[in-house]
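Assess this one:
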Amino acid sequence: MTDEGIRPAVAADVPAVKAVTDAAYHHYIERIGRVPQPMERDHAANVSDGKVFVTEEPGTGRVVGLVVVEAYEDHLYLDNIAVHPDAQGQGVGRRLLHFVDAHARALRLPEVRLYTNALMWENQKIYPKYGYEVIERRVEGPYDRIHYRKRLD
């Protein structure tokens, strides 16, 4: 399934998936006092499991954005969305979020869920603009997380 130049990641994309994720999240390390979880994920396993979708810079083939999703019985979980800092402000994140909605609909799932670290306040401004609502704030171990959902009906 592809949409607006978004395709399933393949094994050859794993280094780019890691590089984009690291570049997108690195600046949060100092703010939250630890490495953000998306940077520590097993990218090769996620790609192998079909959970990662990437988008490339037109004309270069360079991966500049990605989403990691997992389907559950009643929702699509958006585990990670990352846009390389060089590509931010160009609509990549918007296209990826629209893709997630379309992917959930194709799977006949009624909603998308995600969470973000409470110290990643930029995200708290972005997600509501795309129809996400806060469902709870919960501390899980060392993480203070804000949980969101977007109903697709």
Summary: The first strand starts at residue 6 and ends at 8.
